[in-house]
Amino acid sequence: MHPLRDSLRPLKSLTSTPPPFDPSAAPDNPLELFVQWFTHAVEAGQVEPHAMTLSTVDADGVPDARVLILKDLTDDGWWFASSSASAKGVELTANPVAALTFYWPAVGRSVRVRGTVTRGSEEDNARDFSRRGLGARAVALGSPQSQRLASHDESEAAIEEAARELDAHPELVSPTWTLWCVRPESVEFWQSDAERRHQRLRYSSQGQSWSTTLLWP
Predict the structure, then answer these.
(1) Which of 37, 51, 145, 168 could connect to 86 by a Cys-Cys bridge, CB 3.0–4.6 Å?
(2) Domain-by-domain residue ranges, the chain?
(3) Closest alpha carbon to 101 in 88, 91, 110
(4) Which CATH architecture has domain 26-128+177-215?
């Protein structure tokens, strides 16, 4: 395989101009600052600002990561949804800790969240599943996510059958559909600088309050 080094070197990075940020004026709670930064990313036209990387650890201690969508942010933490039978669901059940990474290149900002993971209630899980579109519900019902697949035709047939079942019984809910909440123990806010003089502010949980620390770039 041809090395990518010569192709990578000319590519530009950190080309956006972040808005002013004064860490000394940051709110006491990282959730408040996250909402501020998220709102600014949306207003700046960041594509899919609610996309985030979820990192987990498998039974052998090997990290795994994938991109999914933020479902909600509450006082408890950051919420996402997935089948409990998926690879990430199995990993979170065995080792309920995770990290989230948001990156908004349009504004030159990133947020990292680390913490423990809890599940939503059965009622909340069912409500979230029912709010999904028909196609998304059919995939969740008819697809054993992350399992070995023999062919594309096999998955299409299973999903079409699930769609027919949902059409006949709209109240059907996947028994494995689960809301997960990352309860933050630390949250880091990173703002880029073209000369790599990045600003980093880390919040650390202190029970009912938070402490903040500036970090070197």
Answers:
(1) 145
(2) 26-128+177-215
(3) 110
(4) Roll (2.30)
